[in-house]
Amino acid sequence: MGVGGNFWDLLRPYARQQGFDYLRNKRVAVDLSFWIVQHETAVKGFVLKPHLRLTFFRTINLFSKFGAYPVFVVDGTPSPLKSQARISRFFRSSGIDTCNLPVIKDGVSVERNKLFCEWVKECVELLELLGIPVLKANGEAEALCAQLNSEGYVDACITPDSDAFLFGAKCVIKDIKPNSREPFECYHMSDIDSGLGLKRKHLIAMSLLVGNDYDSGGVLGIGVDKALRIVREFSENEILERLQDIGKGLKPTVSGGIKSVDDGEEFRSEMKKRSPHCSRCGHLGSKRTHFKSSCEHCGCDSGCIKKPLGFRCECSFCSKDRELKEQKKTDDWWIKVCDKIALAPEFPNRKIIELYLSDGLTTEDGSSMSWGTPDTGMLVDLMVFKLHWDPSYVRKMLLPMLSTIYLREKARNNTGTLCYVINTNFIQSSA
User: Fold this and answer.
1) Which domains does the chain have, with CATH numbers?
2) CA separation, residue 221 to residues 210, 300, 302 (Å)
3) What residue stretches are annotated with the XPG N-terminal domain (predicted)?
């Protein structure tokens, strides 16, 4: 899910359409849970163990056709906050009154169901036999993907969770189909910053307002458009503190300010006495005065011209009057919004903020990534046992990956030794 309220629609105008060559020689972090769920949805009921089958094909295509260096990330223990939000979302989708929602004890997480954990385990076994690095996050997989990206260990993250940006990701590929040549959407944080003026903490603030994986409800009555207007009023360094003030019932100082309108009303009253406007032409002066000595703004020899539909007087009073009306409109909007936020319980939730700003891994985890050569013999045994494939079919499907490894080593070392080694192993395991 990630950030709620159709958040991806807000970002879509800033997506870059990239071809499959974009990932060549790039390291990419893949949220394995996303792939498994996607696989199960795509071919469920049609093939045996779809998660294992499609992970096999997609990984080989990503590695050989796209030329990428994938590293897969699996979820660790989920936050108790996410477990609570997941139960709440289930209650709402099932039409169950959320008043009956069970409360999860502090520090207690609800693990995924056993079947899904078994799917993850099988995919990890497959990936390791393919020689692909697999990392386990302390918490959310997208958090670890994001940190790998922000610290420069990978060039992009492949995940549909928009909260990857909140965890610090710089480049997010929402979805990619390794068996397709169609362009895919690639989102860069730099583009979001230049286009919307939003940085990481702005996005965290928006998620607190519209909902996220840890609080699916957000603030009642505030959607993406309102949240965007709110967070843009503050710099990245102050936005979270200002939200905390608003949550306490304080009114912030914004551009134009939330001011008392007493001064404005007094100004209007005084200026109306000194500066009457003609009811016929709308300019300064009375109608009687204009008929006696004409209107200097209308340019007539006598009298004045009837004002056209939609006429706007540009005198200093009218300009100031419009400014005050717009100010009052802005003030009323801010007062209503701040009141809504102040009514939200425990807003903003500091635990959620800390989750988004915390690190998901240690530096050693990222620097230890390495890509090896597939264990052909073990892979054949695994796929024959799990998917009932013919051994020759497994070897045939592995050939593009083995060829890519050979060509990379050939280019790196400028030697033909590896060709002999790989072919020898391949022939031996085929025998």
Assistant:
1) 7-218+354-367 (3.40.50.1010), 262-342 (no CATH), 376-430 (no CATH)
2) 9, 54, 56
3) 1-96
CA dihedral sign of residues 265, 267, 273, 278:
negative
Q: Which amino acid makes up residue 58?
A: R
Rounded Cα gap, residues 171 and 153, in angstroms? 12
On the 0-12 / 13-18 / 19+ scale of CB atoms within 10 A, 353 is buried
Residues 333/258, Cβ–Cβ less than 8 Å: no
The residue ranking higher by pLDDT, 262 or 205, is 205
Amino acid at 228: L
Tokens of 37: 């769920």
pTM: 0.80
What is the SS3 assignment for 7-34?
Answer: HHHHHHHHCEEECHHHHCCCEEEEEHHH
**Tokens 């492949």 found at:** 158
